[in-house]
Design a protein that fits this description.
heterodimer; A: mainly beta; Porin; about 15% helix; B: mainly alpha; Cytochrome Bc1 Complex, Chain D, domain 2; 2 domains; about 55% helix
């Protein structure tokens, strides 16, 4: 309890100092010195560390379940993907995800994406703004969630947060210089269907995407996931490596062609086991080796995510139910 | 001139109605619990191990909103209030599964059933706190 009060006072002290500095109209250099002051950064880090908590979500990379972010919570996640595609340079892609629970039935997220390709360059590839809504306010056997996303990405994006249309390995064979000139503004929509039963989560996503700046056909994709915690009941003792903190599952996703050519051919498909580790009072770490299921897919794609849930960032805006 | 005034009046009326409706619904979840769910019993009731496990889960998932002592905070309700403590385990289980999304309580169906029962065992072990202090800020 005392540590929480100390932490709050510590942050308050440094915030007040920052505010005073602004009021006194200090020069830019002095302001920067205060902002970059190690103690201020330490205070923010401490606040994040003591406020964070592992998310109670299935450990999927592409598939969405009907779990939304709790109102007022902010999840910060770093999603990575690494692969060495055939006839192309190896790459590592990094996507920063900021997910906020606006209400109990609406979650909004911003993604910032970038990638590094060996023998090429490191570039920022764009952003996404995503919103998920739960139209039914009660839990059912199958729970629908509506997903709407605006994407502002170049063709150089290698995050593989979904596969749609005729996405294939050929996309990875372009150099960054070639790919970054093609900017896509697109609208992506998903119908998420998800069930929680006997500790299992089963989720199915139907994806559709439309390029907004070119008269291209609608693209389709799918993602399926099944997962379960390793233990359904918690142990009474505090433990780090106990089964309740781990979850495992399987994920399958790929493209379904376009309105001009619907089907499973001429697109890529991936299947992968997933393992998630929820560090008590810490981050959630997830890893999955995805195996490409046809010649259009990357042979093996390694995915990893580290996510932190910062609880009640803007909690004062939210009221609770009784 | 009349049209904007009428629009403003209508808007004010609608906002007031919405606020009143949401205020009226504030403790309405109990009425929606089906009988079958109401009668469900907690398989972990009274087990000290389950209470200890529930306390861990409570700290992870519930304490930030409802307070470490479950007494609630300025905008989040106390779980030691008579309405919660007198509710049956089955009723609270129903609330954890469905949430009260309209009033900010999320669904916790992603937490496995046994863990949810452990949380209930812990919350019930805390006991009732008189109404004068039940909505006080958490310490």
């Amino acid at each position: 309890m005392t540590s929480r009060i100390d932490r709050d006072n510590f942050i308050l002290y440094h915030c007040t100092r920052l505010l005073n500095a602004t009021q006194l109209q200090l020069g830019r250099k002095q302001m920067a010195k205060i902002i970059l002051n190690g103690r201020f950064a330490f205070a923010i880090s401490m606040w994040l560390l003591t406020s964070m908590c592992g998310a109670q979500e299935p450990p999927y990379f592409v598939t969405y379940s009907h779990s939304l972010e709790e109102p007022g919570n902010l999840e910060i996640a770093s999603k990575g993907a690494a692969a060495s595609p055939k006839y192309a340079n190896p790459f590592v892609s990094q996507t920063l995800e900021l997910e906020y629970g606006a209400t109990a039935w609406w979650t909004t997220e911003v993604y910032l994406a970038g990638q590094h390709t060996s023998n090429d360059s490191t570039i920022f590839t764009g952003f996404r703004w995503e919103n998920r809504f739960r139209p039914l306010l009660r839990e059912h056997f199958i729970n629908p969630v509506l997903y709407v996303e605006y994407e502002h990405l170049t063709l150089a994006d290698k995050g593989l947060l979904e596969v749609t249309g005729h996405d294939s390995i050929a996309n990875f064979q372009l150099t960054n210089a070639q790919a970054k000139t093609e900017l896509e503004h697109s609208l992506e929509m998903k119908l998420i269907l998800s069930s929680n039963t006997h500790g299992w989560n089963i989720s199915e996503n139907f994806i559709t995407e439309k390029d907004l700046n070119e008269p291209e056909p609608w693209e389709f994709g799918y993602a399926l996931g099944v997962s379960r915690p390793f233990a359904l009941a918690a142990r009474s003792q505090s433990c780090v490596f106990c089964r309740e903190n781990f979850s495992g599952g399987l994920e399958l996703y790929g493209g379904l062609g376009t309105t001009d050519g619907f089907g499973l051919k001429a697109t890529s498909h991936y299947l992968g086991p997933i393992i998630g580790f929820n560090v008590p009072k810490g981050p959630t770490i997830t890893f999955s080796p995805n195996i490409g299921l046809n010649d259009n897919s990357i042979g093996i794609l390694y995915r990893f995510t580290v996510s932190y849930e910062v609880q009640q960032v803007f909690g004062f805006l939210h009221r609770g139910g009784r | 001139m009349r049209a904007p005034r009428l629009l403003l009046l209508t808007l004010t009326f609608c906002v007031s109605c919405a606020m009143a409706a949401s205020a009226a619904d504030y403790s309405a979840w109990l009425q929606h619990v089906p009988d079958a769910d109401r009668k469900r019993t907690n398989p972990y009731a009274g087990q000290s191990d389950a209470v200890a496990a529930g306390s861990k889960l409570f700290a992870d998932h519930c304490a930030k909103c409802h307070g470490a002592d479950a007494l609630g905070s300025r905008k989040k309700p106390s779980l030691r209030a008579p309405a919660v403590q007198k509710a049956s385990d089955g009723e609270i289980f129903w609330l954890l599964r469905n949430g009260d999304l309209r009033h900010g309580m999320p669904s916790w169906s992603a937490i496995p059933e046994p863990s949810r029962w452990q949380i209930i065992a812990y919350v019930k072990s805390l006991g009732e706190v008189p109404a004068t202090t039940e909505l006080g800020p958490s310490k």
